[in-house]
Amino acid sequence: MCEANAYLNTVEGKEELLMEGVNILRPDKDGVYLRSIFGEQKVVKARIKEMQLLEHRIILEGDGGSI
Amino acid sequence: MCEANAYLNTVEGKEELLMEGVNILRPDKDGVYLRSIFGEQKVVKARIKEMQLLEHRIILEGDGGSI
C-alpha cells in the first residue's frame, strides 16, 4: 500500500518520525492534519516541506507541537 | 509504485487532472512544485488542499496557472 511516514524537520535541524502509515494529509491555517491507516489522527504545528512518494516520505517543518 | 495523480480544484468548482505519476511535491511561497516519475516538472499557482495516499490522489486548489 502507498501510505507514507511523516517526518518533522525541527528547528534544531533534527529529523523526527511523527507518524507512520499516513494516508490522509490536509494543511490548514495553523498546521497540518494527519491521519494514518491505523486510525491515528494528529494536527501538528508544521508546514509541508516536501513529499517523496516513491520513498514513502512526507517531510514537515515547524515546531511540531500539537494543536 | 506509489506515485499519485495531482488534481486541481478550480475556482469554478471543477476538478482537472494536472499531472499523472507525481513523485516529488514541494510547496513554495507562490505555488507548488511537482515532479513526476516520467520526468515532467511543473510549478503551479495553487496550494495543497488534501492528499489521499491510498487513493493515489493529490488535490490542489488555486488558479493552477504556470509560474
Task: Outline the structure in words.
2 copies of one chain form a homodimer. Chain A has 67 residues and is mainly beta. Chain A contains no helices and 6 strands. Chain A has strands spanning 4-9, 15-27, 32-36, 41-44, 47-52, 57-61. In chain A, strands 4-3-2-1-6-5 form a 6-stranded mixed beta sheet, with no helix packed on it. The N and C termini of chain A lie far apart (29 Å). The A-B interface holds A 1-4, 22-27, 37, 47-54, 56 and B 1-4, 22-27, 37, 47-54, 56. Strand 2 of chain A pairs antiparallel with strand 5 of chain B.
Helices and strands in order, then pairings?
Two copies of one chain form a homodimer.
Chain A: E1 4-9, E2 15-27, E3 32-36, E4 41-44, E5 47-52, E6 57-61
Parallel strand pairs in A: 1-6
Antiparallel strand pairs in A: 1-2, 2-3, 3-4, 5-6
Quick recap of the structure?
Chain A has 67 residues and is mainly beta. The first copy, chain A, has no helices and six strands.
The helix content of chain A is: under 10%
Q: Strand sequence of the main sheet of chain A, in spatial order? A: 4-3-2-1-6-5
Shape of chain A: globular
**Overall strand count of chain A:** 6
Fraction in beta strands of chain A: over 45%
Radius of gyration of chain A: 11 Å
Element-level helix/strand string of chain A: EEEEEE
First and last CA, distance of chain A: 29 Å
Low-confidence stretches of chain A: none
Sheet/helix structural class of chain A: mainly beta
By DSSP (H or I, 4+ residues per run), the number of helices of chain A equals 0
Chains forming the largest contact: A-B, 20 and 20 residues
